Amino acid sequence: MLFRQIQQHSDNFSYIIADDTTREAAVVDSSYNAGELTRVLRSERLNLKYIISTHSHSDHTAGNEELRSLFRAKTVAHVLSKSRPDIAVNDGDALTLGTVRIKIIHTPGHTPDSICLLADGKLLTGDTLFVGECGRTDLPGGNARSMYDSLFNKLMKLSDGVEVYPGHDYGPKPSSTIGEEKRTNYTLQPRTLAEFINFMRQP
């Protein structure tokens, strides 16, 4: 599997996932990185099939229309997304790029339509989980109860060796693992649901 983490503008990460043989590719969270994404896609001779958004905030979707126009790719988002994607996905669905399988994990909390993507041991977490942090729940559509379920009952149940690739460069390094986040991320320390909701209310 070909995998690239791209950061051209601001602290937003974008990603390219592709099958080495068929050269079918997906962009995840185009953000403000459409120029660099286009350069890599063309230099690697990749056929962009999907433009996937981990959620519908504009800082993650800003390059979608440019890439869609250039490559005739399909936009993908959760069924609750207000972005009207070409393909609407739900928890447990999968997308394929040749032999590469991308599993959809619905992780509401930051937004109702938030998803994470699991492909070949790499977890793209959008604004659900960062290196050393988790996503905000105080924006419109945010919900601390949902975030607790997404973090502790979904993501933290994955194997410790799964690599974590977030939507923003907020931590001391650009990626991590589930095991490392369990050990070091203060937002993931053991808490009851009530304690977590109260914790997320703190300034």
Question: Mind sketching the topology for me?
Answer:
Blueprint: E1 2-6, E2 14-18, E3 24-28, H1 34-43, E4 47-52, H2 58-61, H3 64-71, E5 74-78, E6 87-89, E7 94-97, E8 100-106, E9 115-119, E10 122-126, E11 129-130, E12 133-134, H4 144-152, E13 163-166, E14 176-177, H5 178-184, H6 193-201
Parallel strand pairs: 3-4, 4-5, 5-6, 10-13
Antiparallel strand pairs: 1-2, 2-3, 7-8, 8-9, 9-10, 11-12, 13-14
Q: How many structural domains in the coordinates?
A: 1
Reported for the largest beta sheet, the result is: 6 strands, mixed
> What is the number of strand segments?
14
CATH level-4 homologous superfamily: Ribonuclease Z/Hydroxyacylglutathione hydrolase-like
H/E series: EEEHEHHEEEEEEEEHEEHH
How confident is the prediction overall: mean pLDDT? 97
The CATH architecture designation is 4-Layer Sandwich
